[in-house]
Amino acid sequence: MTDRRILATMAAASLLITQWACGGGIAPAPATRMAAEAPADLVLMNGRVVTVDSTMPVAEAVAIRGDRIVAVGTSAEMDALVGAATRVLDLEGRLAIPGFIEGHGHFTGLGEARLNLDLTTARSWDDIVAMVRDAAAEAEPGEWILGRGWHQEKWDRVPPGAVEGVPTHHTLSAVSPENPVLLTHASGHAAFANARALELGGIDRNYVSRPGGETVRDANGDPTGLLRENDDEPVVAALSRSRQGMTAAERDARFHRVVELAGQESLSKGVTTFHDAGAAFGTIERYRRMAEEGTLPVRIHAMVRRATNEEMARRLPEVRVVGAGNHFLTVRAIKRQVDGALGSHGAWLLEPYADMPSSTGLVLEPLEDIERTAELALQHGYQLNTHAIGDRANREILDLYERVFERTPGSQADVRWRIEHAQHLHPSDIPRFAELGVIASMQGVHATSDAPWVPKRLGEERAHNGAYRWQDLWQSGAIVTNGTDAPVEDVDPIASFWATVTRRLPDGGVFDPDQRLTREQALRSYTINGAYAGFEEDLKGSITPGKLADIVVLSKDIMTVPESEIRDARVVYTILGGRLVYDAGVRAP
Question: In this predicted structure, which of 29-38, 168-177, 367-376, 450-459 has the lowest mean pLDDT?
């Protein structure tokens, strides 16, 4: 070995030992420590590395060996770990941060959305009818036409003959008489069906709504096509029946395509871990096969969903897994849902809706059923994550968690139960998250998407006293995470980060500026807090020696650029487990 290489390896070993001794995260496994003097496989040089690690908050360079970070420091120090086979990425001054953790999304839903009509750009009902007309012209007779992303509050006008602000199905049915059409609301908590889909679902003037569902009707008592919450289930069942002729190979191929599309979208936006907020046992089985084969495109933290308590009592032990496929799949959480969404008048409120005084929302799943799930979660070592949007829903779930904890002394310790969304809270319930150790799994981008119409639903006082209380929760000591609820919103973390730190609306106004998070808080909500919410803070969430090498490089420094430039930042590189899995091809001029 040359004198230069001896000095280099000594410097590298000294650097690593210093970092471990200073507490920069968990120490690497013995094999990593023994190989400390070996060259790195990948080195990121000449950047601004924001580590989310208090022992070394900012650095210039990172060295990676295999799927782990082995050193963090200056570019000169990392040069000691560059060997003949080391790949060096010159960051050219760009920002490197831990990989984003999508704290609440729907992974297969994201992939499915790429196969269906994208209705998020529609600015009127006429736009949607035109999109369906064009799709029907290309479809075979009887073929289903699916779409997602419409929101009546984002249209530039109320359609003629609308009922509760939403049209009747007749214009849609006229352009698609031979094709069933099902268009999911942006929130995922309502759907719109044409005449053919209503017929296949058996929904007519004699149809009786399911518990937790509502079929909107016109003055004659006929369904308008709008199906709230659980009332879309008969139409979804009809869609499922139409796919029964698919072979097992065709189903698997379609599933893999959905996962591939979701993975591509996530990685291109810098998402390296995805908390999948609701996966059926069949989906989990497919995820596990892909994890073991090494074909999952991102790390998935899956929550068990769409199973009865009886099914869960039988199957929870067998499906529980932590870190399968080299930390690509973890299944140790259950998802339940107590209410719907505010936009579709499904959120469960303490007081009636300001724009629908006859309603306080919908209860989708009985509280006693959720309480039984809570007992099963404790019994089998599962985290319980409950969707609650309205202030009544949040209070009821906090009460339920508290009852279960009181019945089982010691159970509250480190179970990390969550409330998904936690959007609208009574002020007296805000401190209870920290007191009970309940994580507020929130989505920053929802605040700015919803803010223009939230006062219409809640009234000004409730909207400003209890909606999206990010900073209040943070200051109370609660753990707050971030995400997008994709495909409800674009999975892009930068858009949600921007919304979290600015709460700026399209008209230039700011929605309750006192609830903005700092940039440092917002980054933690998308990294280390997300890791904590998945019991993985020892593995990810910061750029620390010994942790998984999940890193994102951005075109702009979102921690320092003017507020107006944050949204212009784009992902340049996504590194997952030490592998460069996305390269935007952006180079300095």
Answer: 29-38
Count of beta carbons in the 10 Å neighbourhood of residue 189: 26
224/336 Cα distance (integer angstroms): 29
Q: Is residue 21 part of a domain?
A: yes
Q: Who's near 321: CB < 8 A, 6+ residues apart?
A: 288, 329, 330, 331, 332
In a domain, 157, yes or no: yes
Q: What is the pLDDT of residue 17?
A: 29
* The dihedral sign for the CA sequence 448, 449, 450, 452: positive
- CA-to-CA separations, 117 to 124, 243, 554, in angstroms, rounded: 15, 19, 30
Token readout for 360 is 């306080």
Question: Which two structure tokens, joined as six digits, stand for 134?
Answer: 């064009």
The answer to whether 566 and 501 are in contact (CB under 8 A) is yes
DSSP, collapsed to helix, strand or coil, labels residue 271 as: strand
User: 331 pLDDT band (50/70/90 cuts)?
Assistant: very high
Which token pair is 98?
A: 């831990």
Domain end residue (candidates: 198, 225, 242): 242
With a pLDDT cut of 90, the percent of the chain lying above it is 75
If you ran DSSP here, which 8-state letter would residue 364 be given? -
Regarding whether 85 and 158 lie in a shared domain, the answer is no
Cβ 131 vs Cβ 150: under 8 Å: no
Contacts of 282 (CB under 8 A, 6+ apart): none
**Structure confidence at residue 587 as a pLDDT band (50, 70, 90):** low
Q: 15 and 69 in contact (C-beta within 8 Å)? A: no
Asked if 177 and 230 sit in the same domain, the reply is yes
How large is the greatest C-alpha to C-alpha distance in the chain, in angstroms? Answer: 91
First to last CA, the chain: 39
When mean pLDDT is compared across 162-166, 219-223, 309-313, the lowest value belongs to: 162-166
Which tokens in the block code for residue 184?
């999911």
Q: Which residue has the tokens 């560059």?
A: 82
Cβ-contact 529, 541 below 8 angstroms: yes
Residue span of the structural domain in which 205 resides: 108-242
What is the token pair recorded at 402? Answer: 């508290």
Question: What is the rounded (10 degree) CA torsion for 288, 292, 293, 296?
Answer: 50
Q: Between β-strands 42-45 and 61-65, what pairing exists: parallel, antiparallel or unpaired?
A: antiparallel
Vertex 143: Cα angle to 178 and 107 (nearest 5)? 135
Contacts of 460 (CB under 8 A, 6+ apart): none
CATH of the domain at 202: 3.10.310.70
pLDDT at 368 over 90: yes
pTM comes to 0.84
Indicate the number of domains in the chain: 2
Instruction: Please give the structure tokens belonging to residue 200.
Output: 């296949």
